[in-house]
Amino acid sequence: MRIDIEHMDAGYGDKKILHDIDLHLEGPGLTCIIGPNGVGKSTMIKCMNKLLTSTSGTVRINGKDVAELNRKEIADIISYVPVQTDDVFAMPVFDTVLIGRANKSKWKTSPVDIIKVKKALEVLNLTDLADRPFNELSAGQHQTVAIARGLVQETEILILDEPTSNLDIRHQIFITSLMHEIAIEKSVMVIMISHNLNIASMFADNIILMENPGRIRQVGPTAEVITSENIEEVYNVGCEIIVHNGRPVMLLDNILN
Amino acid sequence: MTIDGQTGDVVKRAAKIWASEDDVSSKGSLETIQAYRVSELRKMTFVFICIAAAIIVAGLSITYGTMDIGFFQCYEVIWNHITGNVNDKLIDYIIVDERLPRIAAALVTGAGLAIAGCVMQSVMKNPLADPYTTGISSGAGFGAALAVTLGISIVGGNYAIVVNAFVFSLVPMAMMLGVGKLKKASPTMMIMAGMAIMFMFNAFTTVLKLQADPDALAKLYSWTVGTVADCDWSEIMLMFVVVAAGVALTQIFSRKLNILATGDDSAKAMGLDVENMRIFLLLIISLVVATVVSFTGLIGFVGLVAPHVCRIFVGADNRYLVLSSAMFGAVLLEVADFVGRTVIAPATLQVGVVTAFIGGPMFLYLILRQKKSTW
Amino acid sequence: MVAIVAIAAVAVFVMTNNSNTDDHKAASFEDTRLRIYGNANGDDKIDNTDINLIKWIVSSNTDSDSTNDVDWKKDYPLADANYDGKLNSEDVDVTQKIVDKKETRMYYFNKYERVTYVNYPISDKIGGEYLIIQLLPAIGSYSMLKAIDDTTPKNYSKVYPGVDKMPVMGSWREITIESLNDLYEKGTIGTFMQWTGGQNQDYIWDKAVASGLADKMSFVIVPCQGPDVIQGVLELACMLGDQSLSDKYVKWYDEAMDLMDSIEKKIEGGKKTITAVRCYTNKTSGIAAFGSAQGPALWFNKVINFQPAYVGKTNFTNIESIENFSATATDEVIVMFQKNCDWSEFNTLVETYLKDVYSATTQFKNEKMYIVDFEMMPFAAGPAGCYILASNLYPELFSIDDALDFLQEYLDNFAVREGADARQGFTYTGDGYAK
Predict the structure, then answer these.
(1) Does B151 touch chain A (CB under 8 A)?
(2) Which of B88, B210, B228, B353 to mutate to test the interface with C (most CBs of C within 10 A)?
(3) In the CATH scheme, what is the code of domain A2-252?
(4) Cα-flanking dihedrals φ and ψ of residue A249, to 5°?
(5) CB 3.0–4.6 Å: which of A178, A246, B37, C221 could bond C110 by disulfide?
């Protein structure tokens, strides 16, 4: 599995957000995208599965240009967990997640579909909520259900847009760590936008660091990207890096320049 | 144990579960599968109950009227009619040409409006959407009125009125799609826009009424209130074909409707051509609504209430909701017509009046009953 | 002797020819008021003159002389009494049956311009839809009314006694074969009279035929609004088998209509052009100009020309503003009221409404507003309304006293209630324009 982005610009309407993006990702593992607000993280991942069409440059999935692939073909390779779910009506959680199996199953729901959903709920500690109507859940639970729906699609690439923004720290750690383990166990390329740099740093195999105005500053293994120089220049925040459990951890300055 | 080690245990275990073989025959699996199948069965049962209810209501309704014609005699008359063995021409006319068309029209119209409401609510993600509140009925009504009063129509011949109704129903439909694209449009905002459109088209239709000659005016009056009294068999056949096609197509697309309900981005990412599907479904619905409105006028509430009631029993799963909404809508309208023609007999209350009486409080009850986060 | 016989013979010959000529005058369909097949000569009665005429046509067309053939389809369209497209002895038989009051199928040209039929003589147990029932008192037969539609009691229980207790046939314009048959089987009605006024359609006849009910009950679909009411009166009486029932009304009607027709000749410049509006409520928003196809308007045409700017089609174009009205309407204005209040309240009603709505207008200030009541105008009392209106508009031609006497004649002979006084409550009899 590989994603290749070359010389890509992208934006909305007249506004250009991303400038000359070059990115090459290969093989299973967890990649976290970090960067300041509005830099274009969501925009970039939307270009990967053609939710957004780039204005110039190419995006290739497994060597094929996305411009030549239709939505269904892309959906068979990439699953996407959006930052917000829209479900309006009161569908039970189980059924909501089951929708994710639409591309895998025929008209009738097969036993495999049911088992997959059961497993996904179990893995994400949602089993107790299986029969609850979706719209009675908290924002954090919504997010976790959306992740479950992404998981059951069982594609080789999984993209998540800020899946942990509404979760407490234990759950943030749980999800991020889980994404890493699943990437290894099931051989999936997981790409995740993250706001918590330290937690991302704990589990990511690779980090994509983006900086204004919509460029990639550095891509690479976590230890190489999380440096105090990078953090200072991208976020304008001073910090000291220590190593804990083999991973860089930022200790932030309490005074801003 | 370090934090890393602890989370590693929990997480590693979870990841292992996820990556493990799917064992469909394990005890836990079988239980889950069984539970799911039971819930499926329950939903299917509801669909069948709705179908049965439609048949029963129609079957009972045919035996009732101003004249006292016995229960079995009614069916005998229908049988004789089918076999070409008519005994009493007058009774035959009363059953087959007066009572039956009314019932058939009510069933078909109810199904059509309900399916339209069901689809609109899913596609526009708006629990308040139905042909009436989105102004689509009024647009169609205006087109029909235009053909009848001023004789202005896009095609000539038998389908002039329906084609007009369809074309003019597209205006509110396009407006609704446009409003829906506005970033911050909430469901309430969309419905308010829809009602504004409805008022507008109703006003246009009223202006037409001023121009109308007495014959046309009488027909227009019935439309505004909504009636199933005027349909002849050829019109009913047309409605039936269109509504049946609409229900069939919607049922075929019901899985995709489920996907659509998860959100535009999510649905696109799962492979759905969201824009085109939305337009396609709304076009079908507009055709269904236009056809039905051309002959029976503006009947409110059925499209709103039927899907909501069915949702209480089968949830928001469109695979069951579509068919049960259609059948429930048929039942609802047939009951409304039955009430309308019996409560002040031999005078009749128009069906649209009765649906407002039944549907209004029902809808209010639904609103109060739901948890607040349904909207 | 021979000379006298010869002269007498010639005289006889000439006379016969003359009477032949008179009796054989072509019937103009437009002028015919009794449009029943069998009324070959197009006058107001079906009698022996029609039978003779038909015989004459038949013999002219079957003798060997082809120069005297009669194009009866053109000249005597109503001669074909059995409406089969042929003129022969069968038509004579049918017309004879009509004259002898024997049962036969009677064809007639109905309000919707179709030829339909009744089962002559029609049953005198009549179900009347909406205001078609006003034909019955005009022929002194109100007691024949046995069933009504559901709007009549609501609106007219004070005007037509007993309607709130009569069986109901169904909703106006939606009466079903089922409900009619139900009442027929119960012996309540044998004749159905359809309301042929504005806003109704030809909705029942085809159903009556398709169901076969038209062979059991009679469906009477005759005009009743405006001056065409005379057609309805004549035809209804004929269908009942007693043409004398309509005699009095016809005489009364013709008296007024002849007077109205004389206006055009006697007044310099012909009929005046007048604005006609209605004033059904005391809110300005409720007033509207007159629909020219509305019942009252049909009568007004006999007396005035409508001011074009204020004539809507059927439904009442609203007047924009009172000031605008004041400036653009004619100096004299007709105002139509509608209220089924008791006659004792009518004066107060008129004064209040008129003042509330029109007091700002010049026409009101000049006291040039003429009040007419809707209940009187569209229907059989129309001629009286015309006469009263004309006496206000053309005082040099007509006196209001005569007009009121004329109305009294109506009340005494053709109205439903007894003891009504033309000078109390059927016209405005107040003190004048309340300031």
Answers:
(1) no
(2) B210
(3) 3.40.50.300
(4) -125, 135
(5) C221
Cβ distance B317 to A91 less than 8 Å, yes or no, reads yes
B300 located within any domain: yes
Q: Is C171 on the interface with B (CB under 8 A)?
A: yes
Min distance B294 CA to chain A CA atoms (Å): 32
Identify the closest residue of chain B to C172 by CA–CA distance: B347
Which phi-psi region, left, alpha or beta, contains residue B151 (left: φ > 0; alpha: ψ -120 to 50)? left
Cβ distance A90 to B311 less than 8 Å, yes or no, reads yes
Quick check: is B19 in a domain? no
Indicate whether B30 belongs to any domain. Answer: no
**A97 neighbors A85 (Cβ within 8 angstroms):** no
B232 interfaces chain C, CB cutoff of 8 Å: no
Q: Answer whether C180's CB lies under 8 Å from C213's CB.
A: yes
Q: What is the DSSP letter of A133?
A: B
Whether B13 maps to a domain, the answer reads no
Q: Report the complex ipTM.
A: 0.89
In this complex, the residue of A71, A79, A177 whose CB is nearest that of residue B11 is A177
Chains that touch A (3 or more CB pairs under 8 A): B
Q: Could you tell me the CATH number of the domain that includes residue B341? A: 1.10.3470.10
Q: Nearest chain B Cα to A105, which residue?
A: B255
Establish whether chain A is in contact with chain C, requiring a minimum of 3 CB pairs below 8 angstroms.
no
Substitution target in A66, A86, A88 with the highest count of B β-carbons within 10 Å is A88
Contact (CB, 8 A) for C298 and C226: yes
Under an 8 A CB cutoff, do C201 and B93 touch? no
pTM: predicted TM-score of the whole model, two decimal places = 0.81
Domains and their CATH numbers in chain C:
23-105 (1.10.1330.10), 120-241 (3.40.50.1980), 252-413 (3.40.50.1980)
C-alpha closest to that of B150 among B222, B209, B77, B221: B209
Cβ of B67 and C181 within 8 Å?
yes
Tens digit of pLDDT at every position of chain C (435 positions): 444 444 444 444 444 444 445 678 888 889 999 999 999 999 999 999 999 999 999 999 998 888 888 899 999 999 999 999 999 999 999 999 999 999 999 999 999 999 999 999 999 999 999 889 989 999 999 999 999 998 888 777 777 888 989 999 998 888 999 999 999 999 999 999 999 987 678 889 999 999 999 999 999 999 998 899 999 999 999 999 999 999 999 999 999 999 999 998 998 888 998 888 877 777 766 666 666 666 777 888 899 888 876 665 434 455 667 777 788 888 888 888 776 556 667 777 778 888 888 888 888 888 888 887 766 666 788 899 899 889 989 999 999 999 999 989 998 898 887 777 777 755 555 555 444
CB-nearest partner of B90 from C213, C293, C312: C213
Q: Using H for helix, E for strand and C for coil, what is the string for B17-36?
A: HHHCCCCCCCHHHHHHHHHH
